[in-house]
Design goal:
The complex is a heterodimer. Chain A contains nine helices and no strands. By secondary structure, chain A is mainly alpha-helical. In chain A, helix 3 crosses helix 4, helix 4 crosses helix 8 and helix 7 crosses helix 9. Chain A is globular and about 60 Å long. The termini of chain A are far apart. Chain B is mainly α. Chain B has a domain of 62 residues. Chain B contains five helices and no strands. The longest helix of chain B is centred in the middle third of the chain and has 68 residues. Chain B is elongated, with a radius of gyration of 50 Å. The chains are: A mainly alpha, B mainly alpha. At the A-B interface, helix 2, helix 3, helix 6 and helix 9 of A face helix 1 and helix 2 of B.
Chain lengths: 186, 147
Protein backbone atom coordinates (compact mmCIF):
# COMPACT_ATOMS: atom_id res chain seq x y z
CA UNK A 1 0.00 0.00 0.00
CA UNK A 2 1.44 3.38 -0.98
CA UNK A 3 1.89 6.22 1.46
CA UNK A 4 -0.83 8.21 -0.38
CA UNK A 5 -3.28 5.33 -0.03
CA UNK A 6 -2.57 5.07 3.70
CA UNK A 7 -3.17 8.79 4.10
CA UNK A 8 -6.41 8.57 2.10
CA UNK A 9 -7.67 5.64 4.16
CA UNK A 10 -6.92 7.47 7.40
CA UNK A 11 -8.60 10.60 6.10
CA UNK A 12 -11.86 8.68 5.67
CA UNK A 13 -11.89 7.70 9.34
CA UNK A 14 -13.08 10.65 11.49
CA UNK A 15 -10.98 9.50 14.44
CA UNK A 16 -7.72 9.67 12.46
CA UNK A 17 -8.70 12.39 10.05
CA UNK A 18 -6.82 15.30 11.59
CA UNK A 19 -3.64 13.29 12.06
CA UNK A 20 -3.80 12.04 8.48
CA UNK A 21 -4.33 15.56 7.20
CA UNK A 22 -1.26 16.75 9.10
CA UNK A 23 0.65 13.93 7.47
CA UNK A 24 -0.66 14.93 4.06
CA UNK A 25 0.45 18.54 4.55
CA UNK A 26 3.77 17.42 5.91
CA UNK A 27 4.36 15.30 2.81
CA UNK A 28 3.39 17.87 0.19
CA UNK A 29 3.76 21.29 1.82
CA UNK A 30 7.10 22.18 0.27
CA UNK A 31 6.23 21.12 -3.26
CA UNK A 32 2.91 22.95 -3.08
CA UNK A 33 4.52 26.02 -1.56
CA UNK A 34 7.16 26.30 -4.29
CA UNK A 35 4.59 25.73 -7.02
CA UNK A 36 2.50 28.58 -5.60
CA UNK A 37 5.49 30.79 -4.86
CA UNK A 38 6.67 30.63 -8.48
CA UNK A 39 3.20 31.82 -9.51
CA UNK A 40 2.67 34.66 -7.04
CA UNK A 41 6.39 35.40 -6.48
CA UNK A 42 6.04 37.03 -3.05
CA UNK A 43 6.42 34.94 0.13
CA UNK A 44 3.50 36.49 2.05
CA UNK A 45 1.14 35.95 -0.86
CA UNK A 46 2.41 32.40 -1.33
CA UNK A 47 1.76 31.70 2.37
CA UNK A 48 -1.82 33.03 2.06
CA UNK A 49 -2.53 31.01 -1.08
CA UNK A 50 -1.01 27.86 0.42
CA UNK A 51 -3.24 28.13 3.49
CA UNK A 52 -6.31 28.69 1.32
CA UNK A 53 -5.27 25.69 -0.77
CA UNK A 54 -5.02 23.52 2.35
CA UNK A 55 -8.47 24.64 3.54
CA UNK A 56 -9.88 23.72 0.12
CA UNK A 57 -8.16 20.34 0.33
CA UNK A 58 -9.60 19.72 3.83
CA UNK A 59 -13.11 20.69 2.72
CA UNK A 60 -12.92 18.69 -0.50
CA UNK A 61 -11.16 15.56 0.67
CA UNK A 62 -14.41 13.56 0.55
CA UNK A 63 -14.86 14.46 -3.12
CA UNK A 64 -11.44 13.05 -4.10
CA UNK A 65 -12.20 10.06 -6.34
CA UNK A 66 -8.69 8.67 -6.86
CA UNK A 67 -9.09 8.95 -10.64
CA UNK A 68 -5.81 10.85 -10.62
CA UNK A 69 -2.94 10.63 -8.14
CA UNK A 70 -3.29 12.51 -4.88
CA UNK A 71 -0.46 14.87 -5.76
CA UNK A 72 -2.02 15.71 -9.14
CA UNK A 73 -5.25 16.63 -7.34
CA UNK A 74 -3.40 18.77 -4.80
CA UNK A 75 -1.37 20.45 -7.53
CA UNK A 76 -4.54 21.26 -9.43
CA UNK A 77 -6.14 22.87 -6.39
CA UNK A 78 -2.97 24.88 -5.73
CA UNK A 79 -2.87 26.01 -9.38
CA UNK A 80 -6.51 27.09 -9.30
CA UNK A 81 -6.05 28.93 -6.01
CA UNK A 82 -3.00 30.74 -7.40
CA UNK A 83 -4.86 31.78 -10.55
CA UNK A 84 -7.86 32.96 -8.49
CA UNK A 85 -5.54 35.00 -6.27
CA UNK A 86 -3.73 36.53 -9.25
CA UNK A 87 -7.00 37.43 -10.98
CA UNK A 88 -8.32 39.10 -7.82
CA UNK A 89 -5.07 41.04 -7.44
CA UNK A 90 -5.07 42.00 -11.13
CA UNK A 91 -8.63 43.32 -10.89
CA UNK A 92 -7.68 45.40 -7.86
CA UNK A 93 -4.50 46.79 -9.44
CA UNK A 94 -5.69 47.18 -13.01
CA UNK A 95 -5.59 50.76 -14.27
CA UNK A 96 -5.76 52.22 -17.74
CA UNK A 97 -1.97 52.16 -17.99
CA UNK A 98 -1.30 48.81 -16.38
CA UNK A 99 -1.32 45.55 -18.33
CA UNK A 100 -2.25 43.56 -15.24
CA UNK A 101 1.12 41.88 -14.63
CA UNK A 102 3.02 44.90 -13.34
CA UNK A 103 2.14 44.05 -9.76
CA UNK A 104 4.03 40.77 -10.13
CA UNK A 105 7.24 42.63 -10.97
CA UNK A 106 6.59 44.98 -8.04
CA UNK A 107 6.02 41.90 -5.85
CA UNK A 108 9.30 40.49 -7.04
CA UNK A 109 11.29 43.68 -6.44
CA UNK A 110 9.82 44.21 -2.98
CA UNK A 111 10.28 40.61 -1.83
CA UNK A 112 13.04 40.40 0.75
CA UNK A 113 13.23 36.63 0.28
CA UNK A 114 14.46 36.79 -3.31
CA UNK A 115 17.74 34.95 -3.35
CA UNK A 116 18.94 35.04 -6.95
CA UNK A 117 21.46 36.99 -9.01
CA UNK A 118 20.75 39.66 -11.61
CA UNK A 119 20.21 37.12 -14.37
CA UNK A 120 17.66 35.29 -12.26
CA UNK A 121 15.89 38.54 -11.46
CA UNK A 122 15.74 39.33 -15.18
CA UNK A 123 14.46 35.82 -15.89
CA UNK A 124 11.76 36.13 -13.21
CA UNK A 125 10.68 39.49 -14.61
CA UNK A 126 10.50 37.94 -18.09
CA UNK A 127 8.39 35.07 -16.73
CA UNK A 128 6.13 37.57 -14.96
CA UNK A 129 5.22 39.13 -18.31
CA UNK A 130 3.86 35.82 -19.65
CA UNK A 131 0.13 35.03 -19.67
CA UNK A 132 -0.89 32.87 -16.67
CA UNK A 133 -1.17 29.60 -18.59
CA UNK A 134 2.21 29.99 -20.27
CA UNK A 135 3.76 30.99 -16.95
CA UNK A 136 2.45 27.86 -15.26
CA UNK A 137 3.71 25.65 -18.10
CA UNK A 138 7.10 27.38 -18.19
CA UNK A 139 7.56 27.06 -14.41
CA UNK A 140 6.49 23.43 -14.34
CA UNK A 141 8.85 22.53 -17.17
CA UNK A 142 11.83 24.78 -16.48
CA UNK A 143 11.97 24.66 -12.68
CA UNK A 144 10.10 21.48 -11.68
CA UNK A 145 10.97 19.47 -14.79
CA UNK A 146 7.53 17.88 -14.80
CA UNK A 147 6.79 15.67 -17.80
CA UNK A 148 4.25 16.93 -20.32
CA UNK A 149 2.08 13.85 -19.74
CA UNK A 150 1.79 14.58 -16.03
CA UNK A 151 1.31 18.28 -16.71
CA UNK A 152 -1.50 17.37 -19.09
CA UNK A 153 -3.38 15.57 -16.30
CA UNK A 154 -2.83 18.41 -13.81
CA UNK A 155 -3.82 21.22 -16.17
CA UNK A 156 -6.38 19.33 -18.24
CA UNK A 157 -4.66 20.37 -21.49
CA UNK A 158 -3.34 18.22 -24.33
CA UNK A 159 0.39 17.44 -24.52
CA UNK A 160 0.61 19.16 -27.92
CA UNK A 161 -0.93 22.37 -26.55
CA UNK A 162 1.45 22.29 -23.57
CA UNK A 163 4.48 21.88 -25.85
CA UNK A 164 3.31 24.81 -27.95
CA UNK A 165 2.73 26.89 -24.80
CA UNK A 166 6.23 26.14 -23.53
CA UNK A 167 7.75 26.95 -26.92
CA UNK A 168 5.96 30.34 -27.05
CA UNK A 169 6.92 31.06 -23.46
CA UNK A 170 10.63 30.37 -24.11
CA UNK A 171 10.58 32.66 -27.15
CA UNK A 172 8.94 35.47 -25.18
CA UNK A 173 11.36 35.07 -22.28
CA UNK A 174 14.36 35.17 -24.65
CA UNK A 175 12.96 38.26 -26.31
CA UNK A 176 12.45 39.97 -22.96
CA UNK A 177 16.00 39.11 -21.87
CA UNK A 178 17.46 40.48 -25.11
CA UNK A 179 15.47 43.71 -24.82
CA UNK A 180 16.23 44.30 -21.15
CA UNK A 181 19.75 42.87 -20.89
CA UNK A 182 21.41 46.32 -20.71
CA UNK A 183 20.03 46.71 -17.21
CA UNK A 184 22.43 44.10 -15.88
CA UNK A 185 26.18 43.82 -16.01
CA UNK A 186 27.23 40.46 -17.52
CA UNK B 1 25.81 41.90 -23.75
CA UNK B 2 23.87 38.65 -23.96
CA UNK B 3 24.12 36.92 -27.30
CA UNK B 4 21.73 34.11 -28.20
CA UNK B 5 24.40 31.60 -27.15
CA UNK B 6 24.90 33.33 -23.80
CA UNK B 7 21.17 33.38 -23.18
CA UNK B 8 20.97 29.66 -23.92
CA UNK B 9 23.89 29.03 -21.56
CA UNK B 10 22.32 31.07 -18.80
CA UNK B 11 19.07 29.18 -19.32
CA UNK B 12 20.84 25.89 -18.92
CA UNK B 13 22.92 27.06 -15.97
CA UNK B 14 19.88 28.11 -13.92
CA UNK B 15 17.48 25.39 -14.99
CA UNK B 16 15.64 23.97 -11.99
CA UNK B 17 17.09 26.54 -9.58
CA UNK B 18 14.48 28.52 -7.71
CA UNK B 19 15.83 31.92 -6.72
CA UNK B 20 13.62 32.29 -3.65
CA UNK B 21 13.90 31.40 0.01
CA UNK B 22 11.47 31.37 2.91
CA UNK B 23 11.72 32.88 6.41
CA UNK B 24 13.69 30.62 8.71
CA UNK B 25 11.63 27.79 10.19
CA UNK B 26 8.66 28.62 7.94
CA UNK B 27 7.88 25.00 7.12
CA UNK B 28 8.35 23.77 10.72
CA UNK B 29 5.10 25.18 12.10
CA UNK B 30 3.08 25.18 8.88
CA UNK B 31 0.84 22.23 9.81
CA UNK B 32 -0.14 23.87 13.12
CA UNK B 33 -0.98 27.19 11.48
CA UNK B 34 -3.03 25.49 8.79
CA UNK B 35 -4.94 23.39 11.35
CA UNK B 36 -5.60 26.56 13.38
CA UNK B 37 -7.02 28.27 10.30
CA UNK B 38 -9.19 25.28 9.47
CA UNK B 39 -10.56 25.19 13.05
CA UNK B 40 -11.13 28.96 12.93
CA UNK B 41 -13.01 28.76 9.63
CA UNK B 42 -15.05 25.83 11.00
CA UNK B 43 -15.90 27.88 14.10
CA UNK B 44 -16.98 30.84 11.96
CA UNK B 45 -19.10 28.53 9.82
CA UNK B 46 -20.61 26.91 12.92
CA UNK B 47 -21.44 30.28 14.50
CA UNK B 48 -23.08 31.61 11.36
CA UNK B 49 -24.94 28.34 10.78
CA UNK B 50 -26.07 28.38 14.45
CA UNK B 51 -27.43 31.93 14.01
CA UNK B 52 -29.19 30.87 10.83
CA UNK B 53 -30.52 27.76 12.62
CA UNK B 54 -31.81 29.95 15.46
CA UNK B 55 -33.36 32.54 13.18
CA UNK B 56 -34.80 30.09 10.67
CA UNK B 57 -38.11 29.35 12.49
CA UNK B 58 -38.65 33.00 13.38
CA UNK B 59 -37.92 34.10 9.81
CA UNK B 60 -40.18 31.36 8.47
CA UNK B 61 -43.00 32.42 10.76
CA UNK B 62 -42.56 36.08 9.85
CA UNK B 63 -42.56 35.24 6.13
CA UNK B 64 -45.70 33.10 6.53
CA UNK B 65 -47.50 35.87 8.42
CA UNK B 66 -46.50 38.42 5.81
CA UNK B 67 -47.71 36.15 3.05
CA UNK B 68 -50.99 35.48 4.86
CA UNK B 69 -51.44 39.22 5.45
CA UNK B 70 -50.81 39.96 1.79
CA UNK B 71 -53.17 37.22 0.65
CA UNK B 72 -55.96 38.41 2.92
CA UNK B 73 -55.34 42.10 2.49
CA UNK B 74 -55.07 42.26 -1.29
CA UNK B 75 -58.64 41.08 -2.11
CA UNK B 76 -60.02 43.32 0.67
CA UNK B 77 -58.14 46.30 -0.74
CA UNK B 78 -59.34 45.60 -4.25
CA UNK B 79 -62.95 45.16 -3.05
CA UNK B 80 -62.70 48.29 -0.85
CA UNK B 81 -61.37 50.42 -3.69
CA UNK B 82 -64.11 49.19 -6.02
CA UNK B 83 -66.84 49.88 -3.40
CA UNK B 84 -65.44 53.33 -2.66
CA UNK B 85 -65.40 54.19 -6.34
CA UNK B 86 -68.99 53.00 -6.73
CA UNK B 87 -70.12 54.97 -3.68
CA UNK B 88 -68.35 58.11 -4.86
CA UNK B 89 -69.95 57.99 -8.29
CA UNK B 90 -73.36 57.29 -6.76
CA UNK B 91 -73.11 60.24 -4.36
CA UNK B 92 -71.98 62.47 -7.22
CA UNK B 93 -75.11 61.51 -9.12
CA UNK B 94 -77.27 62.13 -6.08
CA UNK B 95 -75.68 65.55 -5.69
CA UNK B 96 -76.46 66.25 -9.33
CA UNK B 97 -80.06 65.10 -8.95
CA UNK B 98 -80.43 67.17 -5.80
CA UNK B 99 -80.58 70.24 -8.07
CA UNK B 100 -84.31 70.81 -8.17
CA UNK B 101 -84.67 72.16 -11.67
CA UNK B 102 -88.35 72.86 -11.24
CA UNK B 103 -87.77 75.48 -8.57
CA UNK B 104 -85.42 77.58 -10.71
CA UNK B 105 -86.53 80.76 -12.49
CA UNK B 106 -84.95 81.84 -15.80
CA UNK B 107 -82.32 84.08 -14.24
CA UNK B 108 -81.27 81.43 -11.71
CA UNK B 109 -81.10 78.91 -14.50
CA UNK B 110 -78.92 81.26 -16.52
CA UNK B 111 -76.70 81.73 -13.47
CA UNK B 112 -76.36 77.99 -13.06
CA UNK B 113 -75.54 77.59 -16.74
CA UNK B 114 -73.18 80.53 -17.10
CA UNK B 115 -72.00 80.51 -13.49
CA UNK B 116 -71.70 84.27 -13.31
CA UNK B 117 -74.39 86.51 -11.92
CA UNK B 118 -72.76 89.72 -13.06
CA UNK B 119 -72.98 88.70 -16.70
CA UNK B 120 -76.78 88.69 -16.61
CA UNK B 121 -78.40 92.10 -16.39
CA UNK B 122 -81.99 92.83 -15.51
CA UNK B 123 -83.89 94.06 -18.52
CA UNK B 124 -86.16 97.01 -18.01
CA UNK B 125 -89.62 96.36 -19.62
CA UNK B 126 -89.81 100.01 -20.77
CA UNK B 127 -86.60 99.60 -22.72
CA UNK B 128 -88.05 96.49 -24.33
CA UNK B 129 -91.17 98.40 -25.27
CA UNK B 130 -89.12 101.28 -26.68
CA UNK B 131 -87.07 98.83 -28.66
CA UNK B 132 -90.10 97.14 -30.11
CA UNK B 133 -91.87 100.42 -30.98
CA UNK B 134 -88.84 102.01 -32.63
CA UNK B 135 -88.46 101.12 -36.21
CA UNK B 136 -84.72 100.89 -36.29
CA UNK B 137 -82.72 98.53 -38.39
CA UNK B 138 -79.70 96.63 -36.99
CA UNK B 139 -77.12 99.26 -37.99
CA UNK B 140 -79.09 102.03 -36.33
CA UNK B 141 -79.54 99.94 -33.15
CA UNK B 142 -75.81 99.27 -33.05
CA UNK B 143 -74.94 102.97 -33.45
CA UNK B 144 -77.48 103.84 -30.71
CA UNK B 145 -75.84 101.38 -28.33
CA UNK B 146 -72.40 102.75 -29.15
CA UNK B 147 -73.53 106.30 -28.38
Amino acid sequence: MTNDQQILDSLKDPSSRELAFRQLISTYKERLYWHIRKMVLNHDDADDVLQNTCIKIWNGIDSFRAESSLFTWLYRIATNESITFLNQRKRRMMTGLSDGNEFLIQNLESDSYFDGDEWQMLLQKAIATLPDKQRIVFNMKYFDEIKYEEMSVILGTSVGALKASYHHAVKKVEEYVKTNETRIQP
Amino acid sequence: MYEDENIANEFLKHKGKIPFRTPEGYFDSLEDRIMDRIKQSKKTNTTSSRIIKFLKPALGLAASLLLALLLVNSPINIFHTKTATTLTSTSDLLDDYSLNLGSLDDNALANVIYGDESSTTTINPEEVLAYLSSDLNEVEIYSEIQN
